[in-house]
Amino acid sequence: MLARTAALRLATSASARTTVPRAVFAATQTRSTATTTKTTDAEAYSILVAQRKQRPISPHLTIYQPQLTWYMSSLNRITGVALAASVYLYGIGYVIAPYAGLHLESASLAAGMAALPIAAKIAIKSAIASPFVYHAFNGVRHLTWDTARELSIKGVYRTGYAVIALTTVGAGYLIFGV
């Protein structure tokens, strides 16, 4: 670095320009200076829009191969939100029901459920039991990961398939067995 600096000093002096080899100048970089012009906000915005049109569009999820972990993670979040929303809505409904003339007591709900056709009972039980069981078993899966177990690709898939199997069995028991 020191030799290069000394060679550049020699090259810039008027007397040494003829004696310094041309290779010294080839190693230096030159950049053109940027010019600026005054623009209004509207012109600057239109330039920005034109630049953005030239940028490539992110491919997002369409270029990736779907994987079990994606589906299970998404489904875990969806079931969590659905279960939480159900609890909050039922709680709010239970508080408001007496003022609205509705009956949300256990006896009224049991009598209403008993009066439904079997297909409606199965559909309602499925809508409640499946997300609950899935979210519970997937929560246990996440707790297992928190203990630094089953974090390999093989372990993640093994626990994923176990959650699917346990969800099927558990939801089936709650829907048809109870």
TrEMBL record:
InterPro entries: SQR/QFR_C/D, Succ_DH_cyt_bsu_CS, Succ_DH_cytb556, SuccDH_FuR_B_TM-su. Keywords: Heme, Iron, Membrane, Metal-binding, Mitochondrion, Mitochondrion inner membrane, Transit peptide, Transmembrane, Transmembrane helix. GO terms for cellular component: mitochondrial inner membrane. Its main location: mitochondrion. It is a multi-pass membrane protein. One of its GO terms (molecular function) is metal ion binding. The keyword Ribonucleoprotein does not apply. It is found in: Mitochondrion inner membrane. The keyword Mitochondrion applies. SUPFAM superfamilies: Fumarate reductase respiratory complex transmembrane subunits. This is Cytochrome b560 subunit of succinate dehydrogenase.
